[in-house]
Amino acid sequence: MELIVLGRSGGFPMPGEATSGYLLRHGDTAILVDCGSGVLSNLFRYVPVTGLSALVLSHLHSDHQADVSVLKYALNMTRRFGTAVADLPVYLPARPEGMVPTADGVLGLRFYEDGDPFEIGGIGVTCIAGDHPVPSYGMRFACEGKTLAYTGDTRLCPNVARMLLGADLAVMDAGGLERLRSDPMVHMTALECAQAAREAGVRRTLLSHLVPFQPMEETLREAQGGFDRVELAMPLASYTL
Ligand SMILES: [Zn+2]
Ligand SMILES: [Zn+2]
Questions:
Q1: Counting ligands in written order, which one lies closest to the CA of residue 186?
Q2: What are the residues whose beta carbon lies below 5 Å from ligand 1 (ion)?
Q3: What is the CA(150)–ligand 1 centre distance, in A?
Q4: What is the distance in A from the centroid of ligand 1 to the CA of 187?
Q5: I need a labelling partner for 81 at 20 to 30 A (CA). Which of 22, 87, 137, 149 fits?
Q6: Which superfamily does CATH assign the domain made up of 2-240 to?
Q7: Which residues are in the CB-under-5-Å shell of ion ligand 2?
């Protein structure tokens, strides 16, 4: 599998970047994982709108689904101007109800819950509930003996270990810093990410969901105090597993 970071900003975008979005590819399969603000602009560098196999949303906060409305325009306009476009399968949580995107004749909504496994083009997906102000899920993507773990948005909770266990690559919500702890936490701190990844035996860890007003060097430094196999997710970088 190949993972390309389309957006790594948390909450709102850093200048010239996008909020959460990742492209996972294997052969002809192309899965968009989260679709935050500015993600489509980066996605279309790699895959046309007709080339997506599915969209998987970790949760329904806007920094993870802001571009879904625009994605619907892209599908709709492509179809109207003569290209056959099938409904795009979208895997998502059913709550909060008011945040669920409308299908508008171009999306095929498929609601999942904790522990639900499904398969997209040969890639096995398992959703695992995190702990966040709205229902939010991490995922494990498995293919040909390799596993990608994605935490979605979550504070540190017991299920983070289930998301990460033995993963070859992990993309983690490092939206917090120890220095800026608040109660309750909404995201993990960089140090918590590092410790959880180390305990779960993760081979390589990308710190993502980086909040624009938190210095990235501090995030990296804090995490490396807990584990040496952590790095910042880099925009448009490709990671092979
Ligand atoms: Zn977020
Ligand atoms: Zn969130």
A1: 2
A2: 63, 153
A3: 13
A4: 8
A5: 22
A6: Ribonuclease Z/Hydroxyacylglutathione hydrolase-like (3.60.15.10)
A7: 61, 153
Question: pLDDT digit of tens for each residue in the chain (241 aa)?
Answer: 999 999 999 999 999 999 999 999 999 999 999 999 999 999 999 999 999 999 999 999 999 999 999 999 999 999 999 898 999 999 999 999 999 999 999 999 999 999 989 999 999 999 999 999 999 999 999 999 999 999 999 999 999 999 999 999 999 999 999 999 999 999 999 999 999 999 999 999 999 999 999 999 999 999 999 999 999 999 999 999 9
Name the amino acid, one letter, at 232: L
Report CA(81)–ligand 1 centroid distance (Å): 34
Q: Tell me the ligand closest to 11's alpha carbon.
A: 1
Contact 73, 44 (CB under 8 A): no
227 Cα–ligand 1 center, Å: 24
Question: What radius of gyration do the chain's Cα atoms show?
Answer: 17
Q: What's the gap in Å between 83 CA and the centre of ligand 1? A: 34
